[in-house]
Structures are given as structure tokens and as C-alpha cells.
Predict the structure.
Amino acid sequence: MTKVLMVCLGNICRSPLAEGILQSMVDPDEVFVDSAGTAAYHVGNPPDIRSIDVAKKYGIEIGQQRCRVFTTADFETFDHIYAMDKNNYTNILAKAKNDSQKQKVKLLLREVNLGYLEVQDPYHGGTLNFESVFKTISVACRAIADKINSNGRN
Ligand code: 4NP
């Protein structure tokens, strides 16, 4: 079982999309996907309605997700921890106890070559920002899913 955690700031816009998108691309018996935020503003809440809506538009249901905070226990549980932007990345790394924990943390967009490394926070944006975030995350999740799926077959 490969365990993947998607992390952003609020865990209501970007990482819930990343969780739902990657989940839709892998076998749930082989890959466990979850998401969390580095901040606690929205704990217990469902994702932002704009994330729920853009996911729904592409056939992915994320409305059942509930916001939670990233904890140091996540370093034990997960094999790969993907940060949406550099602030998230720095904040997660600061909590790591050792090199093996640090090595689990990556910027999501390091998995692809888009020419930029951050999934921009769409919280203060509009529908178009959410659409763009969905597409960017989808490209990265495709690369991750292909890698995980091909490892499983080797
Ligand atoms: P997210 O977006 O990190 O993609 O979930 C945000 C959601 C909420 C806030 C910031 C970013 N906030 O400040 O409440």
C-alpha cells in the first residue's frame, strides 16, 4: 500500500482537489490518499464550494472530505507528502525530525515540468483560478499515478 498525503495551507481549496484527483487515478486497494492543511482555520469543514464544484464538473466528488491539520504523526503514516507551494513545503519540513522524514516531502509540481513550482492559492480568486488549479494538479497527479501504477506492475 502506497500512502500519499496532499498538503496546502487551509486544506479546503487545493489539497482536497489533489486528494480527489489522485484517488480517481489509482486503485484504492493499492494507494491510500489523504490531505491536510498547515493551518487550522477550517478544521472539520468540507472543502470550499468552488473546489467541490470544479471537481464535480470533471466527475470527481470531494464534498465528503473534512478539513484537518497536518501533524507530525503524518510523517510516520505516509510515504509521500506533497506540498502545493513553497510556504507549505517549508512549514512541513520544519516539523520533520530526521532525514528520512524530510525525504518524504516534495513540492507537488516537482513531479512535472510546467516551468513553475507552485500551485497558487486560489482562495481569493474566482472560478477561473479554481479551474486552472484543477488542471495543474491533474497534470501532476497523472505523473504520480503513472509512477505508482508502473511500480506496482514491476
Ligand atoms: P488552500 O487555500 O490552502 O488551497 O486550502 C486557502 C484556504 C483558506 C485560507 C487560505 C488558503 N484562509 O486563509 O482561510
